[in-house]
Amino acid sequence: MEIVLGIVRLNKPGGSEHYTLTAAEQLQRLGHEVTILVEETGPMAELAGRRGLRVTAREDELPADADVLYAQETMSAYRLAARYPGVPLAYHVHAVDFVPSVPPQVPDIVSAVVTMHDRVERQARAFGVQAPVVRLRQPVDLERFSPRGSLRQPPRRVLALGNYLHGDRDRVLEDACSATGLELVRIGLHRGNDVLESQAVLNDTDIVVGKARVIVEAMACGRAAYVYDVFGSDGWVTPESYPRLGADNFSGQSGTPAVDLDRFRSDLALYRPDMGAANRELAIVNHSANRHAVELVELFESLGSPRTPVGGPLREMGRLVRLQWQTEERAFALGGEARVVREELLRVQERAAELEREAARVPQLEQSSAQVPLLEARIRELEAWIRERDAGLRELEAAHAKSAQALQDVLRQRRVQLGIALARPLDLFRRRRR
Question: Is the pTM here over 0.90, yes or no?
């Protein structure tokens, strides 16, 4: 089967980017011809090339014909539909709160919608233009993401992996780790230390904190996984909590009580080394990338014969959606900058309050400073008295030394020594009478 996947960006690491590489690689392993059409390339596109995947940003490098199209966002869907009129197109809805995740609301463009958790599935069934909805699971390469060692008891390191955790939520995590003596490592795009492939950093820790794909990869690596991010929190992944958390794609929004500092600290105390083995088994049973690719092929084959080509300015509609996305991205970036400015403003206000408290003490300090000359005069008096005392002590020491020397001179005289010798028998006689 000739399959063309579409994604706007293969630049920086993220959930949809890693999914695209995983799906394409597994489809190619099954013997299908796979091409990824992108608009922006970067480190993730280079990683795809190193994995033997065909990636292009130019339509003239695409195969002349395709059997099925698989789009990851609205812009790609319009572009693929315009390039391959009438070819069946499956559309993957990645999120519920991201406008480019909504498939084209034009009849007959989308042949099927792929979802991977309950909230996305409910949204897909609420779209104005309907297409068959297929529910799959988040895939992970179980060979690439596998345990490199056992979990430690007690745990030593917590890894917060993700691109969004910041602010108060991040401070709660930091305080909880500090209170329990755990080393906290943070990795993400917004910290400037993101990684293209995370299996090494995942295996270098005991507890992984994150959401969505990060949690699935941590489970596959046999790590203890804790669902917590800026968007929500659900706590530990266990065999008991897995059905509920997995149904929500480990997003932290399954409806459990919010995680505050007290709960975080108490939850960390519930860590057990056997969490890793249980999570690995859950990943094998439920998140095999190979099984996911097989299910995609079954879906693609079910789409049947080519559809009727859709008339209309598809490329222009794609361009308009792209402009909307760019506008939203700028708004999101400005929101991030505003957050940084607010945090800096709070720090400035706290410092100003500190200075005001110090300024309030100025009169008291001024009153105290008026006593400084009197204290200095008293100190000078004490210093003079000490000098006089030291001089007197030196005179006494000199007189004592002089008297001791005179006594020694007297004792060395022959008459004195003779008298002492004559007196010794008398002293002996006196002691005996006693």
Answer: no
